[in-house]
Design goal:
Elements: E1 7-9, E2 22-28, E3 36-40, E4 43-44, E5 51-56, E6 59-64, E7 75-79, E8 82-85
Antiparallel strand pairs: 1-2, 2-6, 3-4, 3-7, 5-6, 7-8
Length: about 90
């Protein structure tokens, strides 16, 4: 069983204007096959035309496209027992 990945670079707060993209990024201690999940509030996010979820090695990114006031709220990234929120 692979050792658990930890979050080494936490999410940073992002301020965006309506219609802009908001980009969130965090970095893990290692590449992992562990389940990772992004949340807006309590809602799990999926990659679709409004949300772009990417992974490059240990870097995990979330891009919220053309944000609206409804997108305002805490964004969280979870891997194993670790969570980062912005």
């Amino acid at each position: 069983k692979e050792p658990a990945a930890a979050i080494v670079e936490m999410l940073k707060d992002v301020t965006s204007y309506e219609g802009e993209d908001a980009v969130f990024e965090c970095r893990l201690s290692r590449e992992t096959t562990q389940d990772t999940q992004w949340f807006l509030g309590d809602v799990p996010l999926q990659s679709n035309e409004m949300n772009e979820i990417g992974v490059q090695g240990t870097r995990h990114t979330l891009i919220l496209r053309k944000v609206t006031l409804e997108d305002c709220g805490p964004i969280s990234f979870k891997v194993g027992q670790h969570t980062s929120t912005a």
